[in-house]
Structures are given as structure tokens and as C-alpha cells.
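Following up on my earlier thread - several people asked me to post the actual chain instead of describing it. Fair enough. Here it is, all 143 residues.
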Amino acid sequence: MLRSMLEAFKNLFKPVRTIQYPAEDIVLPSGYRGLIEYGIDECIFCDKCEKVCPPGAILFYQHEGGEKEYRYNPWLCIYCGECVRACPKPEEALWQSETKQHSAVKEDGANEGWFVWEDACKKSRQRYVEAKKADKIQNKSEE
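Reply from S.P.:
Thanks for posting it. Predicted structure:
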């Protein structure tokens, strides 16, 4: 007990190490793993980033014409960089910037909006697969 009291007394004379966030901006270290950035022109839509993302923060919406739409949830992302490592075109199609994501507020719809989008993506893929199967059956019957 005497030892802990002595340690507490010594801490009274040490400089303050607390960062006054949010009044002061936090200086991010170089190499900070921030937001995932996406280059639609370079993406080949292989879906590898979506498959390796541990929390499921990347989704692709499948349109009926075959095009895909990229969606990313920065509030769900754990910034591990697995998506970037899995990408066949890192630094062109997908890269991790040093930009810090702002905290989510209610208007961002971080949860509700994402769950709606997640459900829409699953249904779009099911519709696409069913449409492809129907096309195959129709093509075989015409032959």
C-alpha cells in the first residue's frame, strides 16, 4: 500500500500526457492505417476484397445487366488492410489512405442504412443468379 501511495505521489509532479481531444486535433503517425479508398476505373470487380473483409465492410451490388456497384462502410471497417492485400491491383483499385474517419452521427445511418444495403446486395445477387439460370434453360430449350 505504501508503494502504491508513493507511486501516486510521484505522478503528481510528472507532466500531463493526456491529449485534449477533441479540442486539439490528434496528430496521426506516419503509416497510419486509415480509410479504404476505391478507384472504380481500375477495379476489375473480382470481389476478393469483399470475400476477405473480416467484418463485411465491403459489399458489391449486382445489377441485372451484370454491372457491380461498390459500397464501403467506414464505421464497420476495422482497418486491417486485408482487402488491399487481396486486391489484384493494389494502389490502383483499392488502397489504404492515412485519412481518419470521422465519428458516426445519427444522420450517417451507419447501422440502419448499412443493414438495408446489405440485404439489397444479397437479394440482387440471388436475382442475378436466378436470371442467369433462367437464361441458360431458355437457351438450351431453343437449341
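Residues 4 and 137 are 78 Å apart (CA to CA). That should answer part of your original question.
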